[in-house]
Design brief:
By secondary structure, the protein is α/β, with parallel strands linked by helices. It contains 7 helices and 4 strands.
Length: 153
Amino acid sequence: MAEHLLFIDLSHLIHRCVSKKALSTLHNSSNEPTGGVYGVIQSIHKCLKQDTSITKVYLLKDGYPKWRKDLFPDYKANRSSNPASPYYQSYIKPNAFGWSVKDSIDYTNRKINEVANLLGMRIVYNDYLEADDLAYIIAKEMHENNNNKDIMC
């Protein structure tokens, strides 16, 4: 019987949850931004509830895609890291509770690492690859090795 693997682009999911207005103001009694953590856990739980045949969960995290920048110098060029840009300012500007989007993302990453370890989920990361690249490479390798696995992304 085939194993059923679930690959989740954790970097994308964290950004999506942290940016969602309904989750962006959730915090605990220590004023830590817990909305992103809640959103990620709820999303993973929903996937597992919808497909009870899933046997393993892999959380894929982005590295810096240097090879893409080498091939396409304008890759993600519209995402300015210029401190004067509105995008950058919205990323680092603290909200009413005192944390920025960057703070929320960093906090969520740390907490999801802890939760994943407790639940036996594997976090996959490569310094030079984004999550979608990792999913492709792992799936291709499994296919080439004739592993009896069904993969969902």
